[in-house]
Amino acid sequence: MLLVNHANNAFKEISTSIFGIPNDISEVDQLSNEINRKHSRDCFFIDNIQTISIQNAENVQYVAASTEKQSVTMQ
Hints:
Strand content: under 5%
Mean pLDDT: 94
Number of helices: 1
Shape: rod-shaped
Low-confidence stretches: none
Helix content: over 70%
Number of strands: 0
């Protein structure tokens, strides 16, 4: 009889665990969606930083060329 009770308790625990799986899957899905959302946001910011960096580099080159031209003109 004791063995039957242990088996019954084990099956109850298994059943409880199985019924909890959909909640666990839902939680993992929500976390995955949140990670994807943050990743997309971060990629957007990185793209913007890249664009601004390229524009700054072009502006620095323009200023350097203008400064060189003024220097030559002044000589």
